[in-house]
Amino acid sequence: MRKPNVLVKLGTWRAIPKFFFVLGGFGVLIYVATLFNFYSLRSLHIPDTFCNNINQDRAGTEVRATIDTVIRKIQDEISTVGYTSANTSVPEFASRYSRFLVDILGLIESMEASLPSDQGTGEIRIVHPLAKPKERSDEPVDYFLIEEIRKYLKIKPNRLGKQNFMGANGTFTSIGHACFAMKKDLEEYMDYDVGEICNDDWKLAQRLMVHGCDPLPRRRCFSRAPQLYHKPFPINESIWKLPDDRNVRWGGYRCKNFTCLARNSTGKGFFKCADCFNLTSHEMPRWIKPIYIDPNKNLTTDFVIPEVLAIKPGEIRIGLDFSVGTGTFAARMREFNITIITATINLGAPFNEMIALRGFVPLYLTVNQRLPFFDNTLDLIHTTRFLDGWIDFILLDFVLYDWDRVLRPGGLLWVDSFFCMKEDLDDYLESFKMLRYKRHKWVVIPKLDKDNKEVFFSAVLEKPPRPFR
Ligand SMILES: *[C@@H]1O[C@H](CO)[C@@H](O)[C@H](O)[C@H]1NC(C)=O
Ligand SMILES: *[C@@H]1O[C@H](CO)[C@@H](O)[C@H](O)[C@H]1NC(C)=O
Ligand SMILES: *[C@@H]1O[C@H](CO)[C@@H](O)[C@H](O)[C@H]1NC(C)=O
Ligand SMILES: *[C@@H]1O[C@H](CO)[C@@H](O)[C@H](O)[C@H]1NC(C)=O
Ligand SMILES: *[C@@H]1O[C@H](CO)[C@@H](O)[C@H](O)[C@H]1NC(C)=O
Ligand SMILES: *[C@@H]1O[C@H](CO)[C@@H](O)[C@H](O)[C@H]1NC(C)=O
Ligand SMILES: *[C@@H]1O[C@H](CO)[C@@H](O)[C@H](O)[C@H]1NC(C)=O
Ligand SMILES: *[C@@H]1O[C@H](CO)[C@@H](O)[C@H](O)[C@H]1NC(C)=O
């Protein structure tokens, strides 16, 4: 490799600023090269641990990224010099200067090629810095064999090499980290022909989500729809009427129609909310008429909607129902001109389709996920039949803090018929007390059906203002 005589070639004072720029670039190079050596040496002397590998890989990636940046800058400079050389008063200098730059470029590229890496090809590559790390063999992308997953996971640098309107240099599509533990299932899920009809695999998708592969990757195939979709009933009819059976794909459910789901029969394939599809007799009175567990003692954990809304007259407008159900809470709240989004997954029955066909907004969301709402926005969160005595205490904490995040100051948390073992009650109540909310309602009563071993808990709590700067 030819060593350019820098000082001779840059004999004119006009070149000095550019000279300093290039010198600066060299400085950076030497610095990162040293850094890289340091990490390499360290990993030679210290037994190879996971940490060292990570450090070394990261250092290598950084070196590579920096070198790429230097290369790109020099290339830019070369094209600028070439462009202006036609107009410059000293064409001789300009051509000398660009030759010098080309030399430097050659040196740096050969240096990059000698970096220990799987892809040092030495050819001129202009790669967006954000796209670099994903090319390494130990990156998530390379963990999967299905091309569609790899394509989805790759960071997509913005075209034109500029930041997009969101201030990011690229788009970062993500999947839940548990996807890596469920590689086979995910690969099955992502095995399709682009542009074709997807497999009928919502169940596989839901299983992946429930087990933490959440979010799932997007797919580039057309999801299956019911064979004959009949337009939904108008809203004045749809709310309290069983929808058209043809509007649901029934594969994967034990019942094959809504009548079966509404019937009081066993073996419907789900147990929570077994009566929730019986709109007329089971759903109608909910949150309007309390059900007394022991009518002689007026014992109930049901609060009725007018009673709860009276706590904050006119203030409750939007909210979330995080429950297992068919949207009846949203239906009742609609009568009070309150918009409720109903979050549920399809546990053994087409809950989401049912909610949508009744005319409400279904949110297909697992408990694994942070709520997709911004801080301090919702007026109300209602929950029933979902968080119960099965839930881990730490998880409950995370869930409650997340709910607290999205509730606005003065918003209400309505815990509806939470049940658990008697001996666990105090621990669960601690979690709710930890929020330090104002207690408007707070009821604990024994659940009479299971040998008095379980208890019900209901509460309406108000998020306090937190006027901290
Ligand atoms: C040279 O300069 C003239 C005017 O200053 C400009 O119109 C022209 O585009 C320039 N050409 C190049 C190659 O920069
Ligand atoms: C995004 O690109 C711009 C210039 O293109 C750069 O200044 C910035 O550091 C980049 N941001 C990140 C996070 O890489
Ligand atoms: C629903 O509304 C439509 C018009 O908006 C009306 O024709 C129809 O009779 C209504 N149905 C019921 C059950 O009220
Ligand atoms: C509904 O499905 C059940 C079996 O799941 C079947 O016995 C019944 O005939 C069906 N009813 C209608 C109206 O299709
Ligand atoms: C709903 O339940 C009631 C009482 O259990 C029953 O009489 C009615 O037939 C059920 N509705 C449907 C659609 O099965
Ligand atoms: C429906 O079934 C539930 C439990 O499966 C039972 O408690 C209820 O009494 C039944 N209702 C009717 C009307 O049979
Ligand atoms: C139950 O409540 C109703 C109305 O709130 C009241 O009239 C009745 O006396 C109460 N019964 C008992 C046993 O407390
Ligand atoms: C809901 O809004 C409608 C139309 O604005 C109004 O007529 C009705 O009284 C409201 N209902 C309640 C319970 O506020």
SSE order and pairing:
Blueprint: H1 6-9, H2 16-45, H3 50-84, H4 91-113, H5 147-153, E1 156-157, E2 170-171, H6 183-189, H7 202-210, H8 235-238, H9 258-262, H10 279-283, H11 305-309, E3 318-323, H12 328-334, E4 339-343, H13 351-358, E5 361-363, E6 378-384, H14 393-406, E7 407-421, H15 425-434, E8 438-447, E9 454-462
Parallel strand pairs: 3-4, 3-6, 4-5, 6-7
Antiparallel strand pairs: 1-2, 7-9, 8-9
Helix pairs in contact: 2-3, 3-4, 14-15
One 2-acetamido-2-deoxy-beta-D-glucopyranose (NAG) is lined by residues 296-298.
Under CATH, the topology of the largest domain can be stated as: Rossmann fold
What is the residue-averaged pLDDT?
Answer: 82
Give a quick account of the main beta sheet: strands, pairing sense, barrel closure: 7 strands, mixed
Helical segment tally?
A: 15
CATH architecture classification name of the largest domain? 3-Layer(aba) Sandwich
Keywords: Membrane, Transmembrane, Transmembrane helix
Transmembrane segments: 20-41
Organism: Eucalyptus globulus (Tasmanian blue gum)
Protein name: S-adenosyl-L-methionine-dependent methyltransferase
